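Q: Sequence in, structure out?
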Amino acid sequence: MSNPFLERTSVQVLLALVVVAFMCNAAVSHTDEGLPWEVTLGGMCVFGVVLGSYYIHRADLALTIVSILAALIPTYFVYNSEVPILNWQLGSAHGLTAPISEVLSGTWRASPNNSRFDAMLPLGLSLYDLSLLPPGISLTANTSEIYHSGLKLDDKVTGERSHEYLLISSPRKVRRKTVGIMLLAKVPYHFDVWPKEESDYAFDLQTAAHIVAPPTFTGELLKLDKGPAIVSIQNKHNLRPFMLDVYKVEYNFGSRDHA
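A: Exactly. Output:
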């Protein structure tokens, strides 16, 4: 006698997806393109839900939980990703007025590692398009492209210095002329990116700190802070309409490392 639960098309599709997911994960788990452990864990959870629904005869419950998981998995993967980009690529690929969404989407698609699962999606979609939260950005720039804006931020409670605002200049050709498009980076003061004893901000970081190893700033792209100081910076430079809120700084080539 056939089981009416298994005859339902939706449940059969779910079981097929679980089997395919496990087979795919097993096939690539020992390669450089292996799926993250979250995929295996998610597959096990889905399998448990479907199997439990078999005994309680609640296919609707299984479909609801699987739908929620399907919506949350892209968000989890994207939000926990840190997409690498070189400073010159940022300048050449995205103009001065490009919004955050355009920069994040373009950066995600240009990263082979982060976008490796996008080929599985239809209609040219990417996991970034399905995510409810944005990824982090790891921007690597030469020290000769980094300047101090002269703006610093103090903690409102303790009064201690908390952040400093650096300017990262991305070269971009405009009408056959190369100009610098500035990205404001809000960097925690304890990272010691700019030497504390240096108060002359007319020079770049390479000259001010005698550092050649390019740093990588990892953070989130956010709207610019408000205030007259930010407006003053906008009036002086070709400033992008967003900033990089940095939470990690690493120096390449083993020269210095901050985390």
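Confidence is low (pLDDT under 50) at residues 27-34, 255-259.
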